[in-house]
Amino acid sequence: METNEPEVTSARQLDVLYQKTDKVYYELARGCGLSETAYWILYAVEVSGGSATQARIAEEFSYSRQTVNSALKTLEARGLVELASSEGDRRSKVVSLTPEGRAFADERILPAIEAEDRAFGTLLPEERAEFLRLADAYARAIDDELTRLRERGATE
Predict the structure, then answer these.
(1) Which residue intervals define the domain HTH marR-type in the entry (predicted)?
(2) Residue 145 CA to chain centroid, in angstroms?
(3) Within 10 Å of residue 92's Cβ, how many Cβ atoms?
(4) How much is the pTM?
(5) Contact at 8 Å (CB) between 98 and 81?
(6) pLDDT tens string for the chain (156 positions)?
(7) Are the CB atoms for 97 and 48 separated by under 8 Å?
(8) Distance from CA of residue 143 to its chain's centroid?
């Protein structure tokens, strides 16, 4: 049986697909006048219902606390977010949308989230489940491999 699908021969093809996706989000962020980090912070706050902790954002997107803090300063200066100490832990900072940030998210972030949902919805339910399962398996495998590589480099 003949198929028109290209043969997958290496992880490079997956790397190229990830780079294409990253480029789409880079261009989306720049179109909003934001850095990628600032875009993903607003995205995280939006999908969290309007507020999220700085630590959770850093962990979820694998950003350093310094990277998140720097982007938050820019977002604060633009009047899009405000920071407050968490009630349970004064050291923990909660990021919330300001009214201006809410309007910005409604205009720029929410439509992108809806577009993602529509694109994901073009896959059949079993394809969505399989895609997520495979992406998660690959992410864990590459993390394991690169962790071993870093550890080996540290001991040499």
Answers:
(1) 7-140
(2) 22
(3) 14
(4) 0.84
(5) yes
(6) 555 666 767 889 989 999 999 999 999 999 999 999 999 999 999 999 999 999 999 999 999 999 999 999 999 999 999 999 888 777 789 999 999 999 999 999 999 999 999 999 999 999 999 999 999 999 999 999 999 998 887 666
(7) no
(8) 17
